[in-house]
């Protein structure tokens, strides 16, 4: 990381330090989305990440005189955001359940990830890589203690040096290196074994094909076709519900009453979307006697070797209007 050298940034910074809110906004706004992604990776919750970005920018304004110019302005904001997340985790202590379920997990729409590209003036910044935003990565991160989580983000995701990470966390380089080793070991325990085979470029033609077949099968209420798409050891969950359903047969048994029969959801209409760099389907349902399809839930798929290994379903609710985040209407 390098200190501020751009004259325009220096002028804006001088004005901000003098109390010019417009100049301050000019400096921080280009970083708002990437800070939200950083907080999201730390917390696994889109809603909490939104709140923590607001907290970060408020802290930055109130403590603007502490920016000494020894690092980039972006690095200074990341330092504040990381510590805001650590404070949040101290206030809200949450641990994954016995089956590894993360009930507070929420998805992050790809269209917003595209807005997280850092400004050109920050050469050390990187785009949001698929392998560090997929839901399986987010779930594994939630198993880490807070400071190990922060070290992993700074070192392995943002690519900062041990010394830079130690400065952010106000600790020693040895402590950072030790925490990173423990964090990597825990991540290996909780990431899917086949992760090394995943595509990091995505979306792939295979994923697009599986997604289309999944949507067609759901709209036809074809449980046999759905079963043919699922791996035998597939997993289904629906945060914030704690239940986790494991195995193809158990999943089909769970889904069948919602697709057909008197307890069915009605006619389904599925729309392809992408969240966390993964294929997903936004589900609308039109119940008998209803004139419109109404927003129901979004299914996020993980595809391995041409089959679905994991389905995470997120209901469209007032508290988490996922269709709004995707830019989709509530009815069709």
Walkthrough of the structure:
With 332 residues, the chain is of the alpha+beta class. It has helices at residues 7-17, 21-28, 32-43, 46-62, 73-91, 110-113, 135-141, 146-157, 162-169, 173-190, 205-219, 223-229, 248-259, 322-325, and strands spanning 230-237, 244-246, 267-275, 278-286, 294-304, 307-315. A six-stranded mixed beta sheet has the order 2-1-6-5-4-3. Strand 5 and strand 6 form a beta hairpin. Helix 7 (135-141) crosses helix 10 (173-190), helix 8 (146-157) packs antiparallel against helix 9 and helix 8 (146-157) packs across helix 10. The longest helix is centred in the N-terminal third of the chain and has 19 residues, at 73-91. The relative contact order is 0.11. The mean pLDDT is 91.
Q: Strand sequence of the main sheet, in spatial order?
A: 2-1-6-5-4-3
Gyration radius over CA: 22 Å
Uncertain runs: none
Indicate the proportion of strand residues. Answer: 5-15%
Record the SSE blueprint.
Blueprint (H helix, E strand, L loop, with lengths): L6 H11 L3 H8 L3 H12 L2 H17 L10 H19 L18 H4 L21 H7 L4 H12 L4 H8 L3 H18 L14 H15 L3 H7 E8 L6 E3 L1 H12 L7 E9 L2 E9 L7 E11 L2 E9 L6 H4 L7
Parallel strand pairs: 1-6
Antiparallel strand pairs: 1-2, 3-4, 4-5, 5-6
Helix pairs in contact: 1-2, 3-4, 3-5, 4-5, 7-10, 8-9, 8-10, 9-10, 11-12
